[in-house]
From TrEMBL:
UniProt keyword annotations, A-Z: Ribonucleoprotein, Ribosomal protein, RNA-binding, rRNA-binding
Gene Ontology biological-process entries: translation
PANTHER family: CHLOROPLAST 50S RIBOSOMAL PROTEIN L22-RELATED, LARGE RIBOSOMAL SUBUNIT PROTEIN UL22M
Protein name: Large ribosomal subunit protein uL22
Family matches, as InterPro entries: Ribosomal_uL22, Ribosomal_uL22_bac/chlpt-type, Ribosomal_uL22_bac/org-type, Ribosomal_uL22_CS, Ribosomal_uL22_sf
Family from the record: Belongs to the universal ribosomal protein uL22 family.
MF terms (GO), sorted A to Z: rRNA binding; structural constituent of ribosome
GO cellular component, one term: cytosolic large ribosomal subunit
The UniProt record lists the keyword RNA-binding: yes
Pfam families, A to Z: Ribosomal_L22
Organism encoding this protein: Breoghania corrubedonensis
SUPFAM superfamilies: Ribosomal protein L22
Length: 126
């Protein structure tokens, strides 16, 4: 039997990709995500390719996955895709401790973040 198919949460002209547990703080990841929000996919990919931020490689990979989902799963035209949403969420924070002088301890936090990218197909202006 199996369970019934879940309704799609996105519109028919949208596709998304999610990257979980990226080893970067959500604040730093949001700086890169804000740079591609609302842009055409080709422009966003070019920006991420030449970005000097380390996490830009993972953001680019997620964006390419969203484009592939749009093309293969939802039959959308790749040339008309726009990054409609790119949002960041907090994941876990690993706590580590480093010994310091005079018996004290320094607390080190290693944050992780989640990234969701939604691309949507827009009609060309005639």
């Amino acid at each position: 039997m199996g369970k019934p198919k879940r309704e799609r949460s996105l519109a028919d002209t949208q596709a998304k990709a999610v990257a979980r547990m990226l080893r970067v703080s959500p604040q730093k990841l949001n700086l890169v995500a804000a740079g591609i929000r609302g842009k055409k996919v080709s422009t966003a990919l070019a920006e991420l390719t030449f970005s000097r931020k380390r996490i830009a490689r993972d953001v680019k990979k997620t964006l390419e996955s969203a484009v592939a989902n749009a093309e293969n799963n939802h039959d959308l035209d790749v040339d008309l895709l726009v990054v409609s949403e790119a949002f960041v969420g907090k994941a876990l924070v690993m706590k580590r401790f480093q010994p310091r002088a005079r018996g004290r301890v320094g607390r080190i936090q290693k944050p992780f973040a989640n990234l969701t990218i939604v691309v949507s197909e827009v009609e060309e202006a005639a």
